[in-house]
Write a sequence for this structure.
């Protein structure tokens, strides 16, 4: 339900007299509907209220959440799906029970609409005169037995006009009785309904302009020039189907006068005051907004067609419908204090060894060459909470998750992004967020989650001292990166470390490099020049990166060791992130099974030829990398090689 203040009280009282329980989802109402429903739910345990806060038109997601909540929290044997403008036409509980007994043989039922509207705008109430269609609509709402609702092969699609079965497709119920449907109750109400319906469809990731065409049809009708109540029968007639000139001409003739009477509140029930109605929208303003909205709907880019749909794996958390990995309502407390601990040489060697791990998630990214260092960093500092600002498709975030799991770190990873994009990264495809969330939920739901907010808004969920490792990779102007750092600085624990990407990117108005050169004067740091540049700022006074090498006086962040890090992680990053050039033999050999010896030999010869080409390509790449490596200052390379040898010897002698 959304913004149904003019009808919700009548609807609620009427159906509380027919049903044992009402499970209601509110979708961002701002006209007093939600406040009214909450006051009723607080006073009457038969009313169960949840909220859906996504802007998009995800009615099927809401249906699924409500269905599961009914099954999990009640013993209901029959589930009805109703909108706030739909009324079962029974004047008593006894009449309703009699109708249900007559339909006892059916497991799935459909109550066809009888479209109707009040005789005057804003004339809806407990009792009023109006008009009803002479014939029942081809649309309606379903009701199902509990065992059907509990069957995971069925889903309730948008509209709930039928069920969809994963194997046999659309399943329509047996027509039983009828359902009074009042989609238009005033000019202002229908304008709001149509505008919010169109905007909600536009907010669906990957929306292609095909689904929900009746909303576009209604918007076109509202923009046709009629502004009085004679528009009502044209809009209501055959609601949900495409309108034609003939339909409009025949609309009035399809209705007949009728008086409507609904069940009022029970005697002695406390009166609940509804919030004041929203101010009417001025005709000129809504027409202008409507034309702009219609232009957007008609101009949808064809490249959106076929994009991956939303993730329907949602649940009800504290009365709100959310994806299980959605942390938008979570609060993150300060991390407990830990003593400073200087890393041992074996720990440093183990961290270096972690850098050689295979990268599991390889979405296209400018961050890829830094993943070996991230593996080593997480192995060494073992962050209890990793937060990434600016996630995009999640390449670096999933690398952090992979490292946390492999190293057995008892911590969590939190992705923060609005998944809209910016002038530097470009506008994100509607599919980016859904793909990211699907991957996160599939693989890392036990240790990671996301917050879909701007960075400043998300920071309000974190207490001071609540983050060990912060990765800043958002909008790259000087002002933006400064704001991100200052806004999250107090969230860092006394072990806090901050990563800045693109410190070596100087194009356009990129300003990370400028901020980095200023901020590194205040804290110990390590920096890398490859992969667009990465800055590692050691903010926490007790961070392990502030230590010295065991048995010596060299700081881990010393310039001398930074030269070693650049050689090791720069080349390792390029090698590990380079694209695969061949097909793993394990993927080819199984294909040989079942072949004759002659064909098998031929296939093996071809396989060996392919592998020889792969080896040649790899050898050429190694020679190229060696040439690049030799171009480094030889004194730096010599010191790096000697340092690695000393570390290995030290580890061997101490083991």
């Amino acid at each position: 339900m959304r913004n149904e203040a003019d009808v919700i009280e009548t609807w609620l009282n009427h159906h509380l007299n027919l049903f044992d329980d009402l499970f209601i989802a509110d979708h961002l109402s701002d006209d007093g509907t939600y406040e009214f429903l909450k006051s009723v739910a607080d006073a009457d345990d038969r009313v169960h209220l949840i909220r859906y806060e996504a802007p998009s038109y995800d009615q099927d997601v809401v249906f699924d959440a409500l269905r599961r909540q009914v099954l999990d929290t009640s013993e209901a044997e029959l589930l009805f799906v109703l909108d706030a403008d739909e009324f079962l036409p029974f004047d008593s509980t006894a009449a309703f029970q009699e109708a249900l007994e007559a339909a006892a043989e059916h497991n799935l039922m459909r109550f066809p609409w009888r479209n109707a509207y009040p005789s005057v705008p804003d004339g809806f109430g407990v009792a009023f005169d109006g008009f009803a269609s002479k014939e029942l609509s081809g649309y309606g709402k379903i009701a199902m037995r509990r065992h059907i609702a509990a069957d995971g092969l069925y889903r309730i699609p948008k509209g709930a006009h039928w069920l969809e079965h994963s194997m046999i497709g659309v399943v329509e119920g047996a027509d039983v009785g009828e359902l009074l449907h009042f989609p238009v109750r005033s000019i202002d109400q229908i304008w709001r309904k149509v505008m919010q319906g169109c905007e909600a469809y536009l907010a669906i990731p990957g929306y292609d302009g095909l689904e929900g065409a009746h909303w576009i049809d209604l918007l076109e009708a509202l923009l046709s020039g009629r502004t009085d109540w004679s528009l009502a029968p044209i809009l209501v007639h055959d609601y949900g189907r495409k309108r034609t000139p003939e339909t409009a001409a025949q609309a009035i003739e399809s209705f007949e006068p009728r008086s409507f009477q609904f069940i009022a509140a029970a005697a002695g029930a406390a009166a609940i005051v509804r919030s004041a109605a929203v101010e009417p929208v001025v005709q000129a303003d809504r027409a202008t907004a409507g034309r702009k909205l219609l232009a957007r709907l008609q101009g949808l880019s064809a490249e959106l067609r076929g994009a991956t749909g939303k993730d329907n794996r949602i649940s009800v958390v504290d009365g709100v419908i959310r994806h299980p990995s959605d942390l938008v309502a979570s609060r993150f407390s300060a991390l407990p204090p830990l003593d400073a601990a200087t890393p041992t040489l074996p720990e440093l060697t183990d961290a270096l060894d972690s850098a050689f791990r295979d990268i599991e998630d390889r979405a296209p990214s400018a961050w890829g060459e830094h993943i070996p260092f991230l593996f080593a960093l997480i192995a060494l500092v073992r962050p209890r909470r990793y937060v990434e600002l600016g996630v995009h498709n999640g390449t670096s975030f999933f690398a952090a998750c992979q490292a946390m799991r492999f190293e057995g770190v008892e911590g969590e990873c939190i992705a923060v992004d609005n998944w809209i994009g910016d002038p530097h990264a470009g506008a994100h495809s509607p599919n980016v967020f859904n793909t990211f969330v699907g991957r996160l939920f599939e693989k890392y739901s036990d240790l990671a989650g996301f917050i879909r907010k701007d960075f400043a808004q998300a920071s309000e969920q974190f207490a001071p001292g609540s983050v060990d490792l912060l990765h800043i990779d958002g909008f790259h102007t000087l002002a933006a990166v400064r704001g991100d750092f200052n806004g999250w600085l107090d969230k860092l624990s006394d072990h806090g470390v901050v990563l800045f990407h693109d410190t070596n990117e100087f194009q356009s108005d990129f300003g990370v490099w400028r901020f980095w050169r200023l901020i590194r004067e205040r804290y110990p740091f390590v920096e890398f020049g490859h992969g667009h540049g990465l800055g590692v700022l050691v903010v926490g006074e007790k961070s392990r990166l502030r230590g010295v090498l065991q048995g010596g006086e060299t700081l881990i962040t010393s310039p001398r060791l930074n030269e070693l890090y650049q050689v090791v992680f720069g080349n390792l990053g390029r090698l590990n992130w380079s694209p695969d050039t061949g097909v793993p033999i394990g993927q080819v050999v199984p294909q040989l099974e079942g072949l004759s010896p002659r064909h098998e030999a031929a296939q093996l010869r071809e396989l060996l030829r392919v592998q020889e080409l792969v080896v040649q390509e790899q050898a050429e790449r190694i020679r190229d990398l060696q040439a690049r490596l030799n171009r480094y200052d030889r004194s730096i390379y010599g010191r790096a090689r000697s340092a690695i040898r000393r570390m290995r010897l030290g580890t061997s002698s101490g083991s």
